[in-house]
Write a structure and sequence with these properties.
This protein has helices at residues 8-32, 36-64, 73-80. With 86 residues, the protein is an all-alpha fold. The chain has one domain. It is flat, with a radius of gyration of 17 Å.
Length: 86
């Protein structure tokens, strides 16, 4: 399996690429369907997924189960369904 990414440069590049990909997809979506309702739903979806990500990695780790550290969303899903709980 692959190890953890530790290079600061690579981590910054990865973050910037995610932002660019999100912007690119958002712009294309709004070009295909230029409507204020689509823009509002897109903004709502992005906000909701950001809050869910925050919940999965910050709230669970700091308030629900401080002993458990998640490596990714798949690990969180396993934890959430009880497969990896002690």
């Amino acid at each position: 399996m692959m190890g953890d990414l530790k290079s600061r440069t690579a981590l910054w590049a990865k973050g910037i690429l995610f932002v660019l990909l999100g912007l690119f997809a958002s712009v294309l979506l709004l070009l295909f369907a230029p409507d204020w309702r689509v823009a509002g739903l897109l903004a709502l979806a992005v906000w909701a997924f950001c809050r869910a990500y925050y919940f999965a990695f910050y709230v669970i780790e700091h308030y629900v189960d401080p002993s458990y550290k998640f490596a990714g969303l798949i690990d969180f899903a396993k934890y959430a369904i009880g497969a990896r709980r002690d």
